[in-house]
Amino acid sequence: MSIYKLLGSSLLIFVLLASCGPSENEMTLTGNVKGLKKGTLLLQKIEDTLLVTIDSVRVLGDSHFSFTKEVESPEIYYLYVRLENGSLLDTRLPFFAEAAPINIETTLKNFAVDAVITGSTNQKLLDEYNSITRRYTDKNLEFIEQGLLTPAEDDSLILAIEKQQVRLKQSKYLATVNYALNHNDSEIAPYIMLSQPYEGNIKYLDTVFNTLTKRVKESSYGAKLDGYIKLRKESTTEN
């Protein structure tokens, strides 16, 4: 065999091996649902406002599972369990999917609550964000309880509680904006801004979007935030 044929064959083998290798957008999702003996794990995501199942794996005895999927842009996926009798658990386990090896360890008894998710950078940031904002949620629950215990005729106290709730809501929103600005190079930034109430200040939405890196602006949530801002501006102009 000539040297040219030998080189050509080697090049062809290299190309074939490279094409069979993992994609740069590949997510390898592994994990364990302790207590799950028989059932089906469903991997789901939202497409065009609908929650769809994109893959599933049967569990028979071994509660460990594995999925390999292409994730073009980091976004929230869901893990759901269909039990052997066909019934679905009431809980759905959300996680931030991205092109990386991700592991989820949880239990069937407390499917979403017990979940420990590792390997996803955006999931780690989301957990940190939820930890920061949880104190605002807890404080609001205190105000609600205080309001329920306040006599209906005590208008001044009820009004004071309502004002405190408004200030708390504003503080939580500003904390969200600040977190997004500090993580403008991650998809978590546009995601948490999109998760805020509709009445969120358009000025802050604009500020966050303009500070996003080019890659994040072009991500799924970056594009959605851009579209949302444009829609809000059009709505404001029409009114």
Radius of gyration from the alpha-carbon trace, in angstroms? 24 Å
What is the overall pLDDT average? Answer: 88
Report how far apart the termini are. Answer: 78 Å
Count the E strands: 8
Q: Number of helical runs?
A: 7
Strand order of the largest sheet: 4-1-7-8
In N-to-C order, the SSE pattern is HEEEEEEEEHHHHHH
Structural class: alpha+beta
Assign an overall shape: globular
Helix content: 40-55%
Count of domain modules: 2
Detail the poorly predicted runs.
4-8, 10-19
Percent in strands: 25-35%
Sketch the major β-sheet: 4 strands, mixed
Describe the structure.
The protein has 2 domains: about 25-115, Immunoglobulin-like, CATH 2.60.40; about 120-239, no CATH class. Helix content is about 50%, strand content about 25%. The protein has helices at about 5-20, 120-150, 155-180, 190-195, 200-210, 215, 220-239, and strands at about 25-35, 40-45, 50-60, 65-70, 75-85, 95, 100-105, 115-120. The strands form 2 sheets. A 4-stranded mixed β-sheet has the order 4-1-7-8, with helices on one face. Helix 5 runs antiparallel to helix 7. It is α+β, with helices and mostly antiparallel strands and about 240 residues long.
